[in-house]
C-alpha cells in the first residue's frame, strides 16, 4: 500500500510539472506572437505597402505606370503604358516592343525600360 501511494504521489508531481511547463510555453508563445503582430499602422514598411491591394494601402495609389522603352534595334525611345492592351510597335523600325497579357504588358526580349516620373 505504501508503495502504491508513493507511486501515485510521484505521478501527481510529474503531472503538475508537465502542466506548469505547458502553461509556461503557451504563455511564451502568446507573448512572442504579440510581438510579431505589432505593426506600426501609420508608418508601414515599403515592402508591405507594395504587396497590399491598391485600394487597401494607407494612401491609395495605382499599380500602373508609364515607362520609356528602348528599342533593341534602333535604340529609339517610346513611351508605353505598363498595362497596355494592344501591341506596341517601334515608330521607326516597326519592331514589336511589348505584347498585351491579362494584366501587365510583356516586353520583348532585349528591350530595356525605365519608369517615367
User: What is the helix content?
Assistant: 25-40%
Strand content: 15-25%
**Biggest sheet, strands in spatial order?**
2-1-6
- The helix tally amounts to 2
Give the end-to-end Cα distance, rounded to a whole number of Å: 88 Å
Question: What class, by secondary structure content?
Answer: alpha+beta
**Which overall shape is indicated by the principal axes computed on the Cα atoms?**
rod-shaped
Biggest sheet descriptor: 3 strands, antiparallel
**Low confidence ranges:** none
Radius of gyration: 31 Å
**N-to-C SSE string, H for helix and E for strand:** HHEEEEEE
Mean pLDDT: 82
Total number of beta strands = 6
Describe this structure in words.
The protein has 117 residues and is an alpha+beta fold. 35% of the residues lie in helices and 19% in strands. The strands form two sheets. Strands 2-1-6 form a three-stranded antiparallel β-sheet, with no helix packed on it. A three-stranded antiparallel β-sheet has the order 3-4-5, with no helix packed on it. A hairpin with a 6-residue loop joins β1 and β2 (77-81). The longest helix has 35 residues, at 2-36. The radius of gyration is 31 Å and the shape is rod-shaped. The model has no long low-confidence stretch (mean pLDDT 82).
Write the layout of secondary structure elements.
Elements: H1 2-36, H2 46-51, E1 66-70, E2 77-81, E3 88-89, E4 96-99, E5 106-107, E6 112-115
Antiparallel strand pairs: 1-2, 1-6, 3-4, 4-5
Compact description:
The chain is an alpha+beta fold.
List keywords for this structure.
19% strand; rod-shaped; alpha+beta; three-stranded antiparallel beta sheet; 117 residues; 35% helix
